[in-house]
Every structure is written in structure tokens, then in C-alpha cells.
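Take a look at this chain, C-alpha cells included, and explain the fold to me:
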Amino acid sequence: MSAFRVLITGGGCVEKIDDVRAITNTSSGKTALLIARVIKALNPAAAVTYLMAERAVQPKIEGKPKTAGGKAGRVCKTKTAGAASTDCDSARNFSSCASLQKLLRAELSAKPYDLIFHAAAVSDYSVQSLVVDGKEFKPGRVAKITGAKNVSVNLKLNPKLLAEIPALAKKKNKGAVVVGFKLTSNASEVEREAAVQKLFAEKNPPDFVISNDLSEITPKSHPCVLWRAGVAIARGQIQTIVRKIYAFNS
């Protein structure tokens, strides 16, 4: 019998402006790493693949994870016999929305997954071009901008990766369960629900959504709500919610 396969994304994307500047966010990847640890504690034999941002908190692995587009990630270290496994079985890094998209497509086309947590904070926008004192450049193809009197950064809308994942996942495993995340900031209950309902209204909606609000997250507490088919079905700390999802699908 094949191992229960879990794919987890985590951390924030970085969209280059010039050689030293970028558009990013405050995501640390700690939530995704916690999810991996909860899954491994519940099922040490589960095969957990972790796609993580380069600047995110890294899992315990042997050597440095491969960058986007490289070969399979390194195998995680394991504890002594009888103890639970460490964070994951393989891990690979991404930087931008485009590199995460490439990794996701490769992973979901190569092998089936039973459970997918898409917790990465994907950039809504990336840089289309820069205009420096009237001269246009492509992002990442210009040295550090310094001394310019007029600088414009033109943005383009990035694809919604969560909208792609269910269709890709179910080509290899029709029973694949996809969990999306919706983070809001200082939002009312009505606003939080509206944000979640938008995800379920997509052409290929996730099976579950975990919603949370930045105003309620602290180093010691991470309350969230679990949604299924647009209905809130559970509330609690992230660890409890992940256990519920695993119980539904193991």
C-alpha cells in the first residue's frame, strides 16, 4: 500500500524590482511548517513534500533544499527508532509566484497527492516593467537604482495558484483534497466570510478553506475557522483544525 502523500506550500513570494529591491510580504512560513509537523505527528509514515519560500523558516533537512527547477529535494533527517519523523520527507524552494507555479505544476503532474495544504502567501502582483528617468527596463534586469529622479514601477496581476491546484491534483488522484487559506487583516466577521466565499465561487474551488485574521495571530495563538462548501464547520487553533482535516481524509 502506498504512503499517504501530503503536499504543503509555505512562506511569502518575492517579486524582483532591481538587483537589491523586491515586493514581498511578512509571511514567515511558520504556519506551513507547523502543519507539516502536525501531519508527521499524526502519521509518521506519511510522505510529506514541502514547497517553501527561500526566506521562510526552513524544515530540518540534510543539506540545502534545491531551488525551483532543480532536481528532487533532499530527504529530511529522522529521529531515533520509534520516534516521530522530522518535518518532511522532501523540500524544495521557490522565490516568486512564477517559480512556485512551476514547482506546483511539476509536483502535481509527476505523482498523486492525497492532501494538499496551500498556505504560501502568493504575491497578488509582480513587476511588469520599470521606468527610470524615462528609460524602461524589465524587472531583475537592472542594477541597483540609485540617484534617479523619477522611478515608476508598473505591476501586473499574478495568476491565482489556488484556482489551478484542484484541477491539476485531481488529474493524478481524483480523491485529492485541497485546502486553501484566506488571511484577512482587521476584518469584520462579514468581511471574512465574504473573502472565503470568493474562493469557493472559483471554477475549481478548494475542498476546504482555513480563514484567519492577522489581528488575532500572536506568537502563542493562531485561531482560525475551517470552511467546507462555503459553510463554517469548525473553529479553533491551527493545530486542532489540521487534525480535523486529517481525520476527515485519512
Notes: Confidence is low (pLDDT under 50) at residues 62-85. The first strand starts at residue 5 and ends at 10.
